[in-house]
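Fold this complex.
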Amino acid sequence: MDIFRRNNVTVAGNPQGPTVVLAHGFGCDQNMWRLTVPALADAYRLVLFDYVGCGRSDLTAFSEERYASLEGYARDVVEVCEALDLRDATFVGHSVSSMVGVLAAETAPERIGSLVMVAPSPRYVDDEGYHGGFSAQDIDELLASLDSNYLGWSAAMAPVIMGHPDRPELGEELKNSFCATDPDMARVFARTTFLSDTRDDLGRVKVPTLVLECVQDVIAPREVGAFVHQAIPGSSLVTLDTTGHCPHLSAPEATNEAIRDFLAGLPR
Amino acid sequence: MIHTDQQPEPYESQNEGAPDIQSHRDSTPDAAFAALLEDSAEELYEAAPCGYLSTLMDGTIAKINATLLDWLGLERDAVLGRMRFADLLTVGGKLYHETHFAPLLRMQGDISGIAMELRCANGDRMPVLVSSVVKYGESGEPLLIRTTLFDARDRRAYEEELLRGRKAAEEARRQAEADRARLQDALTVLQKSLLPDTLPTIPGVETAAHYHIASPDRLGGDFYDVFPLDGERFAFFLGDVCGKGPQAAAVTSLTRYTLRAAALHDADPASALATLNTVLHDRYTGSGDPRYCTAIFGILTPGASPGRLTIQLASGGHPPAVVLRADGTAAFLPTPGGLLVGVLPDAHFATAETVLTPGDTLLLYTDGLTEARTGADRTSLYGDEALLAFAADHAGKSTVDVIGALTDLLASFGDGLDDDTALLALGVPPLTAQP
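Structure:
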């Protein structure tokens, strides 16, 4: 199995620098980090990838069974780390990926030495004494929203997204392709993401961790950010003055600065 | 980043065109046309047949038109500066907005035709198609987002129909594939039941067989078997039922078990075929679907001295067996004049006898082999002479090697081999091969 091809692994930045893995969340692909890469490239070796079922990953490697749990996505991370033989890397995960990073760090502690969690949430659905921000019906609605944009995904688009070298006429980047996903695979990822509950895993995190949250984020509200910060021993919390769920796009300077400060403070 | 040339904001431009409109009014006799021109930019914006919305980069609504307020059932004051675009959406829409729409808009600078639902003040949901563009400042910094929303109620109903149709079609396809796989399994089991799992071990005799199925979807009509008659003798047969598919398979099954039973009753080859003839004739004559087969049935009897094997066989219209001799020659074992089995109430079957000694092999085959189409244009048939020459080339080899060579030959025919083909070889191992 060629993990580099399967997960569309890209390595950028300074080959001599410490390694930082940038992992996209549910919705789009590694292009989400396009404003982060230039800010870290001078000092760090950057590893980007697409989870199987997203972006330009090998869609034939998708298995509904494997990706029905976050552990399946965490295996992607560990396998990418193994393929590059990473040691003590910093894993920067956006949204659900930050929880995937927690699971991966637990599985492969020698490979992941620190975590940056961008807009994390260990549980999206409300629970007794816990406010995640969503009800189970809300999640069903999201799945319906995915379905209603189902027609936006066409079979004609798949070869473009999967990158067919033998069809150069399809080489042009199609509109929305960063976030275009096979609807069946998107539904699996959405279900896995929004029905996950990884609150218990937070207390087992043993590596230096930075939690980044936004002032106003529908998906990961501030009380969830506070929950994550409190649950992870010794973690630090930075609140970014921006709205939405993607601070690395909406407030790239502040986000990059917070990540750089954290990286600079790590013991080397 | 994509920078898009923008129209001026409607509010900014509302006075710019006024003098022109004024001057046209007097000179244009068509009152309706004049009224059209009088449609100010503001009115065009407010009463447009689509929703307009301008927000800051954080989504805070800075401007909204009357059409959209009307759809939402909201007052302008309750919206401006107080709500964000995502607040107008259903929860599912909010999630989609945060995970897909907003990131794409940031990365591309524009996005169009995304299906979302508005959450109206009265609790209704209204399907809309949303398009947005980012307006950039002179130095390229994003300033605001302009959004249009189209009423997609009818379209959404239609799309839901399509979606339902597509899901139904996919479900039907999955079901069809499952059915097909099940049918394939059933066919495989049936096909196996028509052939022996393994050939029995016969002391001092080497046996080998090969069965080529022309199409996995169709049950083959060829058959063969080898089985013990008593402590000493063994019976064997190989044949070809007319036709293909389930009907042919039913005849094959009947044939196989009739020959086995008949042989136990009376092992004389011609008698066994006569019994089969009666059974097939009685069963299928008058059914409107006459069925018959060709077959060779034989008995092998080990000789008094080791390494000698007597073969007696009878043929009902089947291509003659080939005998490959240890000395490198090959010849047909002629069985002329035998009739097809099952056609006439009383049929004559041709009989023949031969003795195999070490290194000799008896080969039975069906006409799939000799009628394979060969040549570049696939128009000539492989034929008896080629078979005999091929057999001579492999005479003296073990039966396993002979069948192996013939299997390779069949494979070399490619798509020229379009019929089922059964091969059965019985031989006395060469002396050198004996332990």
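Residues 3-264 of chain A form a domain with the Rossmann fold fold (CATH 3.40.50.1820).
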